[in-house]
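Quick review question:
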């Protein structure tokens, strides 16, 4: 009887620990792409920081705007100086919730589609973002991916009138976290 009590206590404690686990990464990627008549615009940042609290569902991302790398140096310069004004607005952040985070089992391999709701702050402007993310648990490694689109004007990013008919006003953003690591367990 004592053994069963200890076993049940241990099982409950382990489930409670999993539910309170926080994960982080400093090696996520955010890329964006915009197809346009003039020139396709594409960049990637491989230094995304993210924290995810599985117990509460809270998830946050932060990225330095100057960390985006473009194929062409001039495009990167225009991005930082004229569009996102990286010196004035050095980072973009996302703060949100994974709606059904508690339903995610970290104990078994699985692929789960979840809803993510939150706010994206960029260029000094904060707007709501609602998207779908895929969480993959395989061999104890947790990874996530998500895609959504933003409208540049919603973030007060203006396109010079000289090229405004040749550049797309929307940007497709892809987030990829290849492997979260355990931050702590309470």
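Suggested answer, residue by residue:
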């Amino acid at each position: 009887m004592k053994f069963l009590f200890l076993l049940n206590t241990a099982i409950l404690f382990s489930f409670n620990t999993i539910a309170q686990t926080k994960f982080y990464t400093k090696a996520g990627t955010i890329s964006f792409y915009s197809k346009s008549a003039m020139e396709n615009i594409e960049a990637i940042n491989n230094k995304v920081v993210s924290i995810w609290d599985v117990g509460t569902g809270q998830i946050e991302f932060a990225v330095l705007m100057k960390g985006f790398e473009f194929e062409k140096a001039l495009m990167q310069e225009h991005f930082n100086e004229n569009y996102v004004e990286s010196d004035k607005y050095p980072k973009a952040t996302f703060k949100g919730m994974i709606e059904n985070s508690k339903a995610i089992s970290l104990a078994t391999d699985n692929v789960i589609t979840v809803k993510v709701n939150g706010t994206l702050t960029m260029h000094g402007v904060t707007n709501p973002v609602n998207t779908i993310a895929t969480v993959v648990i395989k061999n104890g490694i947790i990874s996530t991916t998500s895609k959504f689109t933003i409208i540049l004007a919603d973030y007060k990013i203006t396109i010079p009138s000289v090229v405004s008919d040749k550049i797309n006003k929307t940007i497709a953003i892809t987030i990829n976290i290849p492997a979260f690591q355990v931050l702590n367990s309470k």
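Why it works: The two ends are 28 Å apart (CA to CA). Residues 2-19 form the longest helix (18 residues).
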